[in-house]
Structures are given as C-alpha cells and as structure tokens.
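Researcher: Sequence recovery benchmark, item below. Answer with residues only.
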C-alpha cells in the first residue's frame, strides 16, 4: 500500500517515503522537540498512480505493520531488547525468501527505507532514516524515552518488487514501566511554538479528507518547506494493535520546489475500522522538521453507499417482473421478496 488510514492500517488509507541517516527520531507526545531523523516507498499504502494522495486498503489485505513477515520478506531485528532512556543503536536486516539480506531497494521520497518507532501506548513517535551497509544491515541511533513495549515499522520497496510493504516487529525497552492512557488532544495541538489544527473525519471503508493547518504567533504559516519531496507526511496508527498507515498529501510538489505553501496540508485516506487512532504529522518550516500528534476517534459503522450507488445495487438485486404475454394470467402474480440491495464496504 503506498498511501494509506490506509491504516488499515490506516490503515485504509493514511500511508511517505522513508545514503545517510537523517538522525534520531523526533519525539512527540509532550510537545517537546527531540532528536530528529524521520517514511518510504511507503509500504502500507496502495499505489496512487493518479497522484491524488488517496490511500485505500483492499478488503483482503491486512493493514501494514501487523506482520513481521509478508510476501517472502522478513524484518529481523539484531537485538530486540534495549534500555529505556539510554542511547542505543537499532540494527536490523530485511531478509528475502531465500533468507539472505536484501541489498537492493527502490527509493521513495528521497529514501530507500523509512523506519517508524512507537510505543504501545502511542505517547511518542520517532521517524528515522537508517543507514544501510553493503551487507544489507541497516542501523540508526535511537533513544527510547520510557520503558515498555515498542513497535518498529520498516516501510520500503525492494528493487525486485513493484509495490512497497510495511513490516513490523516488537522492541522491548527495559526500565520502570508506567503505563498511561491514550492522550486526549482535541482538534488543536501546539508543538515547538506552532499551532496545528485538524479538520475532517475518517469513516471506516470510505475515503475521507483530513486537513491540517499550521500557524505560529496567531498567524497562518504560508511558507512551509518541502519535506522528503512533499508538503508533509502523515502516519496513522490504530490504538490496540498499531495497524499502520502512511499517507502523502493530495497532489504533488514540483521537483526542486523551494516552498510547499500552507497553511493547509490535505490528505485523503481510509480508516480500516472504527476505534481510536493516533495521527502524527511531520512538516518542515525554516529548516526544522516538527511533528504534531493527534488522537482521533473513528466511528465503528461502515459508511453507507452513496445514494446513486445504492439505487443501482437495489435495482440489480430486485427480480424483474416477467414480460407481458398474450395469454392473461390465471392468477395475480406475486413479486418475490428481495433484499434491499444496499451495498456495504468494509
């Protein structure tokens, strides 16, 4: 899936392209800036040949990041145990069906692979760009702020594949664990002196638009800078299982563009189900990358089909009356009872 809440991972829709490492991830959750690296061929999204930014998830396809192995590829962490609060080096390999490390990748959004690290309580978020050695081993510095269970998402497209994928693996951080409930953010959050406002809704099974508007000092920011070739990158994670969606903005920036405009950045994506999602928006301004985090509840019922679509489905499902004949009917004909024909999407 290449652009997806793709969450279905967001999953159906919410999915960015993830050389040299960009650095350690930017932490969000308390609004404080953290070390920063940063999304990729964005596996976990469906292809978007029209360039609309729309991301949907096929019914038979799991959301990204829920599996450590998929389509013959496996995410292998060298050491899944680290110590919370201490600098660590995260090392891993992507293994092919033959068990050998993959060394060829298709770059997407300026990177061969994007790495996301998030705790199970979704309080923080790190978007990293690791360095690949010649033998296929990836490495990136990481510092996990608190003890607990983390999920690592590798978002990439192997050179031998036309579509990307997202693999996920558990990372364990030792220390004193203090579980916290999912934070409630509302529709406006503040990060690094910027105010970011979220507008729009997500409905399971139907593409919806989310618009995030950036301001500072009470004024709209109209000179956002491109970040990894886009106006911004949105990652959505479903609370409970951390199903993953990585979504790119609607439209495309011209290659080499110096500005991405603003203040609004719009994404089209589909939620795979109801529940609560954490949205993480990366945007760049005046040479620095910032991450705004939101908690967004999504209703659980699939959206009904549009009226025209439902009418067509009903017409197709309703038995047609037999053509009139020259012989009068001996009994009144009784039309069989059919279902309402309304279509449903997952």
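Model:
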């Amino acid at each position: 899936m290449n652009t997806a809440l793709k969450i279905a991972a967001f999953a159906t829709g919410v999915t960015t392209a993830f050389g040299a490492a960009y650095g350690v991830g930017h932490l969000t959750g308390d609004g404080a800036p953290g070390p920063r690296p940063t999304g990729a061929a964005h596996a976990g999204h469906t292809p978007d040949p029209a360039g609309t930014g729309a991301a949907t998830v096929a019914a038979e396809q799991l959301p990204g990041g829920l599996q450590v192995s998929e389509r013959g590829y496996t995410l292998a962490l060298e050491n899944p145990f680290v110590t919370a609060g201490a600098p660590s080096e995260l090392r891993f390999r992507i293994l092919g069906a033959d068990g050998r490390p993959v060394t060829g990748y298709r770059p997407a959004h300026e990177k061969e692979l994007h790495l996301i690290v998030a705790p199970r309580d979704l309080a923080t978020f790190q978007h990293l760009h690791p360095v690949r050695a010649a033998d296929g081993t990836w490495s990136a510095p990481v510092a996990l702020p608190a003890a607990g269970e983390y999920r690592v998402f590798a978002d990439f497209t192997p050179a031998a594949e036309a579509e990307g994928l997202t693999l996920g693996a558990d990372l364990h951080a030792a220390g004193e664990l203090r579980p916290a409930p999912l934070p409630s953010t509302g529709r406006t959050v503040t990060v690094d002196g910027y105010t970011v406002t979220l507008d729009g809704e997500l409905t399971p099974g139907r593409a919806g638009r989310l618009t995030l508007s950036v301001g500072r000092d009470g004024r709209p920011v109209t000179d956002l800078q491109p970040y990894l070739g886009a106006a911004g990158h949105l990652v959505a994670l479903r609370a409970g299982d951390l199903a993953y969606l990585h979504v790119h903005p609607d439209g495309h920036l011209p290659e080499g563009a110096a500005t991405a405009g603003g203040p609004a950045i719009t994404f089209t994506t589909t939620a795979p189900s109801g529940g609560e999602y954490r949205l993480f928006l990366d945007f760049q301004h005046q040479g620095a990358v910032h991450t705004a985090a939101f908690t967004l509840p999504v209703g659980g019922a699939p959206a009904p089909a549009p009226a025209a679509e439902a009418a067509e489905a009903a017409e197709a499902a309703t038995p047609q009356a037999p053509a009139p004949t020259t012989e009068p009917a001996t009994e009144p004909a009784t039309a069989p009872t059919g279902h309402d024909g309304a279509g449903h999407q997952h």
